[in-house]
Amino acid sequence: MTPAATAGSLVGTMNLAAESPGFLSPTGVEIAFLLVGLVTFGAAVVTVTTRQLVHAALWLVVALGGLAVEYLLLTAEFIAWVQVLIYVGSVVVLLLFGLMLTRAPIGRSPDADSGNRWVALAVAVAAAAALVWVVVDAFRTTWIDLDGAPAGSTDVTGASLFQHWVLPFEALSVLLLAALVGAIVLSRKAKAAAAGGGTATPPAAPPPTAAPPAGGRTSGPGASGTTDAGRDTEGTR
Amino acid sequence: MHLAYPAVLSVLLFCTGLYGVLARRNAILVLMSVELMLNAVNLNLVAFDVWLSRAAEETLHSGQALTLFTIAIAAAEIGIGLAIVLAVYRNRGTSDIDKLRDTAEGHEPDGPDTDVSDSDASATQAAAEKAEATA
Question: Given a cut of 60, is residue B87 above it in pLDDT?
Fold first, then answer.
């Protein structure tokens, strides 16, 4: 009865309100969390298993939106809206742009999964089994108290962020600036090469001074991709 | 709410992302799976922050601050990652991870050429020269 005693000391206020919360009598928040969690997990599974690349990005929207709803259920409102703004708003749009810039044929692609998918499945299932066992065993008698004021409103989050976390916040702005400059540099090189190479030669063509093995290596898998790359840089220019 | 609900959902999402990272061939799909793993970590951070802010009177809200930092770093990572993937696609004509084997040891490139005279070092050097020349 020691786990029950420690749980009672941890969630004493919760136990005053409802004497013994249990698995067999889930609250409404738990049922909602479970349903949204099922939708989120299903969307995530479809994201990593579908063969249509654009559908994967759209199912990722469902998974990330479901996670935003889970944050709302955990009373972390600010995180939920940041999740909607940044992930659903910008990251997925970036991913869709990347997909459409690199894969010209939109549709079913049979080579989306690599050959070692069964090994990957075994590793993932083993990791999931071990982690679920450990986590459930560790937090079997732990309850979150969701009553009262929300734990993650904009007021509370802003106060803690700008009182205790100012220095990491400013360091993060430097990191974002570095990422911005890095992305611009990485994109500018290809564009300058396309502008300098002219329209006749595609940028992926090997220079004449390069060794013949290099030309043979790149033209093996990318013989059809060379024209795609040329058309791609034509489109972006 | 029982803490096991968000913890188990986080574990399942993380392992889904793990499968995606290991099994996918396209680099952008791998980036999507990395996003799933990062979101699983975020859910864990938020759930434990909400628990500890009540149970242990923790007022730092370190979990939520770390979640915001993780989201910002993930946004930066996806920008840089997509820029790298696009640069690789322009240079090589493919974004399949299985075909980017220039720095692999012990693997001969599975191309049509059977030119075994060059070692991996010279091939990598030639590829680097090509990348420099195109850049």
Answer: yes
